[in-house]
Fold each of these.
Amino acid sequence: QEFQITDPTGTAPAEYQIADVQVQGNERTRSQFIINASSLNIGSDIIYPGDAISTAVERLYRSGLFSDIKIYVTEQTATEISLLIEVEEQPRILEYKLKNIKRSQRRDLEDIITLTPGTVVSDAAVGRVKNTIKRFYKEKGYWYTEIDTEIKEVEDANDRVRVIFNIDAGDRLEVKDIEFNGNEAFSNRKLRRKIKPLKEDAWWKIFGKKVFKEEDFEEGKESVLSFYRANGYTDVRILKDSVYTYDYKGDKEGIKVLLNIEEGPKYKVRNITFDGNTVYEDATLREALGFQKGDVFNQQKFEENVNINKDNTDLNSLYQNVGYLFFQAIPNIEKVAEDSLDIHFDIYEDEIATIKNVDFTGNTRTHDDVVRRTLRTVPGNKYSRSAIIRTIRELGTLGFFDPQGIEPDVRPNRQDKTVDVTYRLDDTESTSNFELSGGYGGSGIGVIISTRVNFNNFSLQRALKKEGWNPIPMGDGQQLSLGVQVTGTGYQSYSFGFSEPWFRGRPTSVGFNVSYDFYNSRRSSFNVNSKYSLFSSNISIGRRLKWPDDYFSQRTVIGYQLYNIEGSSGALSAGNSNLFTIRQVIERNSLDNFISPNTGSKFTFSAEAAPPLPGFSEFYKFRADYQHHVPLVDRLVMTTQVQYGYIGYFTKDKRSELNRFLVGGTQLQQRQSFLYDNIDLRGYPGSTTESIGHVVDGRKIGGRMFSKYSLELRYPAVTNDQVQIIPYTFTDAGNSYLDFNTFDPFSVKRSVGVGVRLYLPILGLIDLSYGYRLDGVNVPNSTNDVQPGQWEFLFNIGAPF
Amino acid sequence: CKNDSLIKRGDTVDVAFEKAMAMYQNEDYVDAADAFETVTRVGRGTEYGQEAQFYLAESYFKSRQYLLAASEYDRYISYYPQDERRVDAEFKAALCYYHQSPRYKLDQTPTRNAIERFQLFNNRYPDSEYVTQAANYIDEMRNKLAHKTYEGAQFYIRTEQYEAAIIYLNQTIDRFPESKWAARALVDQVETYIAYADNSILSKQQERYEKAIEAYEKFLQLFPESDMRAEIENLHDEALNKLQDVVTGEEASPEQS
């Protein structure tokens, strides 16, 4: 009879029952455990050939106990199968040690080495660690790192070993030369600057090591290429790049980088044509594209203006902002003549897409309503890319979500021409903050200590429930704040505020504030001892408006103030004074950020009246404020601001001398002049006697009008969530006027200076400015007038815009 | 005293396991979890390792660290797929997700995960004693999701964005027809269509009143026994009357444009 050799891969898979399983090679691990872990139990059914065996091997490897695993079929009948599992156990790791290395590097390395105690010491595992170490050193510039390994048995622990890596890092190499060949349009020097982040060493570069990193090199090459492409060299190529060590200066080794470049011709745009566009005319599309006949073909600009650019004026946005989600523009760029391009677009407009579902995930603390009311993408509306961008911006300015973490997920459905939008959010960072600041407010003000607790995502409803306090009731987007400020020995202030931006789920904001200010002047210059206090409370109700556009809002504030003056202060006479005020505010606010706006403007107009009720004092007041922010170059932003105010009276005998305008300082210095309406002006001190006002009968009184102009150039140097540092330079001008007849908008007191705004987690927002004043201020009853031509340091807390 | 009860270097696996178990029995679940964690590490490949893995998950579960508990149950399932406690472990893992499900106003990703796990459980072990319990949990959580969708619609109703409101009411009815929110959503839909029509230009009114009546008919079909019947009847009458007015109004002044 002949033997037939059956190829096991040729046999058809069939089901077998496992008759027997033997385990070999195990000394420390129980056989039954190995069988259980492999899932190949006696009596169970498996398909063979199939993936049962390979899965079993994989499972056993995953246990981390064996360095080698083999499974054999020992017997096979028509229905039954017997298996043999052969394992090789290896000593396990007790610990590993890194020798001959710096302490700091040891810590960094230990973070990236994955050699878990208790796992098997295999060549592969040790090899992986060696590679990790080598990579680590190469990133730091050590190209020739040598590693010896030793494996030592540990005496008192059975089967455990200690793995020792002896590391010899070797010499550190720096990039000493970067050379380009084939470049004609741009010099080596120019290109070296473009190959950043890769840097070449030179005698004057004393900071930092010029280490070669692969990723820097890749990024650098890409940036050289895009530099060429941005200048019309569409065909540019790197023919060859080499990185090698060489001896420079005798026997010292360094790294040389060599790039051979083929530039190709510099292309210019000839004709731009479109086909298939019905919504927009050719001229509109050509303008969006931003290329004229004869322009150098800047590939980067071209791609941005087709797909998406910073200002959303690109071709795609043009269509996507009015609902054409399925829009496609397919460019066909044809080379004509030596160095010209004809660009033709085939436009497929398709139909308008309607938004169907709008959802969001990741609001683990913030309630749905708070998110949903901020969304500008509404189910049933036309799809619009700009609406999504505006939503992201507005969700970011809420302050409850990590602005960088907001991602829209747009899922179009071509069948029924709808689109679902899901926003991914992250609200795990705390939004509450505790601010504690202190500082010196200048002469006559003294040391300032201010603390404030803000709960920015408060929930009153949850505060009434026991389980809501874990630790703070959150989620409804309400604000609760408590503040205490003490200045020197004389001034104290306590405040409490609450606001709900959407009262009962509707776009009406409601808020109330209560504060108590107290000042006791002990300065015995002329007015012996004056004490005054203010109790103030108000309720405000506001609404977002849809007309004239949806950046408008209006607000009504009803307030009650009780002033109490003992002794006298300036022109104000002693006694109690009651005020009941109604203020109406109309505002248009399109700022994109309250700490440092990049774009947008804010216009505020308010009219306030304290009617002459029996027992109450009276006045009326108008104020207007306009600010405009415009990005200049890079991150530089210019802010212009204009402000005016006027206070008038209904009667002759019930006039309130309170609430008149004093100009100078910032809120922090002005706090003790709370009997006045204080207008910020950098470069000038802000105390009652030193502020810009008028002197009548030897006493400083506030003006009935004021003007203020401000110009600021700001550069947000550091802007991450933790810290923001924004240096700026400014020119301010302002004045207060005794009455309408003396009002002259061009007669102002001026200052110039520099400053910085810092946003720090515990301290909140701090503003430091150092201003040089060009004009002086008369201080009554003293010989120390505020002199022109001097510097004034000012310090403030809170948002400026 | 306390120090003796802690696992020390040099303790054998069985001693370490006994110590961990003692903490577990003393209901000191936080320390027990630490101890079992140690036992799973040193006792890998032994029976103690397996026991410790199970009780590690239990300790986390009992100390309400559901996220950790779920991953330890899952580890148990993947290490010991043949073990009979697997059914318990799978149910408990699903239960961990259930406990992580937050109130309806927040992100419901854990809720959806829990529903998926319970459904998987019921498919895999249709004869288990936990099946009814799992089904009840699924109902409860689907009701929560329905509530969330319904409240989304309520927001759009409050802010008078009728189209959006109708889309979200539809979602409530279509996705969660079995929930108690579906009937409520249909009543609201009739009301919303009427409000939408009231605020529409004349040419659109007829269609929208008709939609209100359609929603009413759907309600009759789906929830004939509902106690919201009287409420919806009134709305239906209102829609009918208004529709009548529109139609007769159009007939009186034939189209001019």
Amino acid sequence: MSEAGIEIVALLEHTTPPSGLWLDALRRLKRNPGALLGLAVVAVFIIVAIFAPLIAPHQPNDQNLALVGSGCCPGPSWGHLMGVDDLGRDEFSRVAYGTRYSLVIGVVSVAVGLSFGMLLGAIAGFVGGVVDSVIMRSMDVMLAIPGLLLAIGIAAMLGPSLWHVMIAVGVANIPIFARLLRGTVLGQRESDYVLAARSVGVRKRIILSSHILPNSMSPVIVAGTLALATAIIDVAGLGFLGLGSQDPATPEWGTMLTNADLYLGTAPFLALFPGLAIVVIVLAFNLIGDGLREALDPKLRGRA
Amino acid sequence: MLRFVVRRLLLLVPILIGLSLLIFIWIRALPGTPADALLGERATPKAVADFRQRYGLDRPLPVQYWAYVKTTASGELGTSVASHRPVTTEIRERFPATIELTGAAMLFAISFGLPLGLLAAKRYGSAVDHASLFVSLIGISVPVFFLAIILKYIFAVKLGWLPSVGRQDVLIDAKHPTNFYVLDGLVTGNWNAAWDALKHLILPAVALGSIPLAIVARITRASTLDVQNEDYVRTARAKGLPPRIVDRRHVLRNALLPVTTIIGLQFGLLLGGAVLTETVFALPGMGSWVKEAIGNHDYPVLQGGILFIAVVFVVVNLIVDITYGLINPRIRVN
């Protein structure tokens, strides 16, 4: 072997082993302390959601009116870690059960926005022409109404209920995902591998589903994770405005805050705990989203 | 430049048509009919039929839509069901409240977010940088209404430093020629009223401004870091310009370009967040108005109010786009 050949072999032995985009991203995500913290927090919340009946000392709707007999409301104590609400219910148990709602809320809203948004964006980007114009101009119209207001409008149309609020927040997110996916699909459509697939006669639908879409996924994953965070905030906000669950027994954090606002003078902890729960879960999803953004950024690939 | 402005104006036409259609359909899809809302549930069928005929609700939908577009275009938005006052009159009173709030929130966000982002970029990797990242992470993670409740508790309930409800103390006798209360106080020379209105504005503005603050800090930091590595900055440094001049003329001017676009987009977020902030602080603005209208099935208010907010948002974005074209000659070319 020539000397140059030996040098190349030596060089190859020192580079990182070959890996795909996802493995590489995962490796970098594991080195990001923020993202790891976020993942740990989400894991804790999932565990609390699953084992809520075991973790919560009381049922979320068990009322002990004797506790609020001498005024609202007894603050945190060993018996009631987060105090007792105006109806004599254990706040800690309600916050713990509320975890179930928050996770479902995030996933359902993002699923609605993501699925319809991706579908519309992919069609607009891939088909182009009149279809593209019609879809994207409709998205522009939706974007002309400030997001939260659009969600409020849709929720009002569907009638007050927690499911409707989740759908409303999801629908308000459709134009954002549609724009994102259209942009990436347009970028991919002109790339060489698509040209190669087209030239060997692969059908359009197959090109879109097995060539373009998988390669357009990384921005969608990042935006989807960050959207989980905003969806939880928005649904809580609509719940706070009274558009969410009409059943006061539902331990949804946003709805709990509406009530807590009334007792702010005497029982501020009733607002503090559900509010902090929202902040922590939203913070966790934001950390994961930022970590994923850095891990999936092709400009940063191979570094760090 | 003129062509750029004209093209942006033409793009408005389909948006406005779409918007009017969307709101027209939305109002008709709301649960309950206007007749139920206005006449009550026990109205006789005859009364309902008369009502429908009077307001043209028995005519075909395209005819109704055309009538709606014609009256709206002439500036007529109907009368509120709840207050029996013209929607336009109420907008005149409430819109200044919301603008005052969103303006103050934006001012707060820019005056803290911008220096924070710049400082973080200048001291990249330092404690200041980490602090700025932490602040912006917290800013986007704390719900506006929760922050509003916390601020209200600390500064109004507990410390009693600032008022927690309304736009002005009811005991203050003030005239309101413009309905911008702070401005009104200044214009009429009533310093006391202006100061009181300003105090009422602080907590809501800080609560609402927390998100744009986080985003402005983030974008400023990122764009300053980008610009700092540009060739023209290196050239400026290499030819011996003092660092202060390089920062101001070469870095800052270019780094602020993306920040201006973000400010326009943030305005929509602020208008949405105003619904929550106005609710917590009982401010009689557009947001709390729309919220009440949903509860009251006040269709004229919903129809007019949401259309008005959307049009304002579209116009603000148009202005931002045009300003962007003015300050950044690069995008005018194509």
Amino acid sequence: MLAEPQRQPRLERETSPPAATAPYFAGDVRSFELTRIGWVARLFRRRWFQFAVILPNQIIFWVALIGGFIGTVDPTRSFGTAITWYFWFFAVLAGALMVGRVWCQICPFGGFAEWIQRLTPWGRRERGLTLNRRWPERWAVWGIIPGALVFYLLTWVEEYYNVVGPGKPIYTSYLIIFVFALAIGTFSVFGRRTFCRYLCPLSAPVGIFSTVGVLSGFRTRDRERCMSCDTKECMRGSKVSYGCPWFEFPGSNATNQGCGLCTECFKGCPNDNVGLYLQPPLTNVHSPGKRRWDVAWALVLLWGIGWYQQWNALSWFSNARGTGIDDWLNRLTGWPHYPNPLGYLLLTAGVAAGYYLYSRAAARWAGADWRRLFTAGAYALIPVVGADYLARQLPKLWDHVTRVITTASDPFGWGWNLFGTARLPIYHTRLLPPGGVVATQVAVMAIATAAAGWAAWRIWRRDWGGERPRVLGALALAVLAAGVYTAVMYVAMQAAE
Amino acid sequence: MILDIREGPKPQVHIDQERCAGCTECLKECPRGCLSLDPKGWVVSWSGKDCAGCRSCQRVCPYGNIRVEGPFRWLHGRLHPLARDVEERLADFHEVSLGYTREEAFREAHRCLGCPRPRCREACPAGNDIPGFIDAVRRHDLPGAMAILRRTTNLPAVCSRVCHQAQQCEGACVYAREGGEAVAIGQLERFVADWCREHTCGYVGRDGRWPTGRRAAVVGSGPAGLSAAEDLARQGHAVTVYEALPVLGGVMAWGIPTFILPWELLDHKLGELECLGVEFQSGMRVGADRNLEQLLAEHDAVLLTTGAGQDNLLGLPGAELAGVCTATAFLSRSKDCLRGQGEHSSPGRTLVIGAGNTAMDVARTARRLGSKEIYAVDILPEEVAPVRRDELAKARDEGVCVWFSTSVARFLPDAGGQLGAAELVGTKLQEDPSGRRRAVPVPGTDQILPVDTVVFAMGYRARGDALAGFARIVPDARGLIPVASGTGRTAAAGVWAAGDAATGPGALVRAMVAGKRAARDMDAYLRGAQSTVA
């Protein structure tokens, strides 16, 4: 008589989150405080500091904006197109991934709107030009997802008008005007930097990718002292500083995702108990104070956009012969031309649904709570998705960034030579050959995949206390598959070109 | 009956979890311990079990992330102590308010939520531990409550009757900030002080200090002088109080009527000081009978608390007529006659110029002296007039006719050359070119009011005469003695000044606090300095 086969005992399911998700503060890790350097601290204490770092960007973007209207219609000769799409977007992503939210510190959009909101470029005024409303709670529960959706929408608009392509310079100007208008409108109605926290199209990717970076944001030096402080001038403001425009609190800030590096808390702390720290890379990927579901969903949305932008570079998705998937969808829906919104929606939703189903299945297999696995897995994917965005900018950077130098002397294409660089023989210079470009893309993805794998291991150790090794397997499989797939796609895109 | 706070509809507290930064300000503020910090997410969560719905958390959240819905669950309304009937109280000069009974005080004390960060304490100029002493009342530990009060105040019986609590501690009470009636802090303080006085646990000791052999002089026996004298004596110094008037107590003696501040309270305080060894020399005016140099030669330190007893006057036509007097003269004369020193006839039809607290005291005193028609006029509208609302209500109950936005143009003599009438004129607030709002006469609103007595009750200013013959301290343009903030030190070594003489006319409790601060600094000085007295 055959013995009844023994069934593999099912893993005991999680019933409650473990205590391992405890707060994780800058003081808990080995870190270096930048503000211990005297001149850095003195600089940050100046009220004009942030104005001074925003002003150059402000000038550049106003020149880019105006150039779209009065300058040349040739995008290859337009400073606005060159600076925005061949350098700026790469620099924003690289800055976020390597450092942190440095872009937010120097952002001209939020900066300009904030000057209007405060009615002063760097002073301290009690009253400003804003209704100072609160972002409604029913919207706030969605966290950074509204900002991610604005980014999602703008990406489609950019594809439609081929703004980056490069398209007409005026389209770049329209894009800049849209962001300026959205910022000014939001700053006029809502208090502080509600726009930056909830609505800014760049805030979602920059905030999420900055968790990879080494800048921890402004945090308390002595948490106990911070918690016992009765004035909370970092939050409420003081005579010399505004309350945190980003609605953060240095005393509990355990991730750099929400700190805009505006230095207001550093200026205002009556106890000199706030500092800016350096931390090991990926610290806030594997050990943020708390894992946020909105960050996870926003990351999945960004990932879907990444998939779309890789697919649309392949001929079977869209081609001149009209035989691609997008062309078929256009004929089906009567849409005039690429990109078909239904295809955009279906592909990005498909990525999200695929990741959701993977999380459910992996959680079932590993005996874990699927919500926790979904969120933790999304955090582990941050380096991969961030590197994907960065790698996609590399061809433009290597091939065209020299145009920034030449067009800077002739920003409107009027034949000027302001800095003597307009006629330098670098206009057609490619910094890397095509093979080198794809090699850097693959290298970036390889590094990011390794980093994501290490982050997955740390996440598993922190969130699951090193137990349930299948969770680690599920996380590792996700990041490895994502990294390898993305790298392969870049090779395929190169082949398609 | 004390209601159970768990009865009735419950409040709901909504915390915006997305924006909660975990600063724990709300936790520190919540009097019921209903909020806690979730250590996993570093956000605050709410448990509604004992929530009173007081909105303290909502008010204090730096980012406005907390919203409270539902009622503020009171235990019961504020208990108002019984007051004597108008007819009865007009017949004598006894105190009007009867104060709390023990049961009432116990019930009222239960209204206090015991806020962990008590705003009432922050608003009290003396910094009294208000939740602490009320908690002691709640535990029926009245000597303990008095001990808590004595840490910060020397005159609880006086301050509880005279302070403008609605603008101070009670104004900051969580009930008042929510539009309700504040806990009756003043009445509870009065109950504790009176109970302890009546139950002979009122006299304070020397804090176990041996006599230091240092001598200190206090010039003036008002609230600043008495509190400083007490604190210095408790530290073991030999203190002598010099008072210009025959009666000790300063403004408490001559300026506050006995139906607000009974004699026995002041007498008890003076007796307490005598038990501590404080010597009193009344009828000795420093600057006239003896100068400051002489006092310095006889003492190691001198504190000037000469107050601000000079009445402000208006240079109106007819102000020199017989029948026109000042509040100081009127009130001190009435108190003299209560002590059997001189007589005070009915002032007849009385016009009080001013509608502040002193003016109300004058008007109500005149009513008790037999005046049937009493008018008080103030140049300002009622909503900005500096008068305690409860005192104004009592004055009106007693038949005082108070007219705001009214000024006096001149006084008219009668046929005998005595004061016969006053010409009144309506006023309105109007911005001058500098943007300041000033009361200006309204043409066509003149009226003649027949009066027999006019009393100027328009505030006080410092006299500055104590410094006569003493060149080392130069009073400022307002006659005030320049002092170091917080310590009361003057430019002359060994001389301090405190109270209205240094800061100008102000609340009695602030003078008391200034006296205590000066005494603290004097004590340190006296302990460190060699005695120069032979």
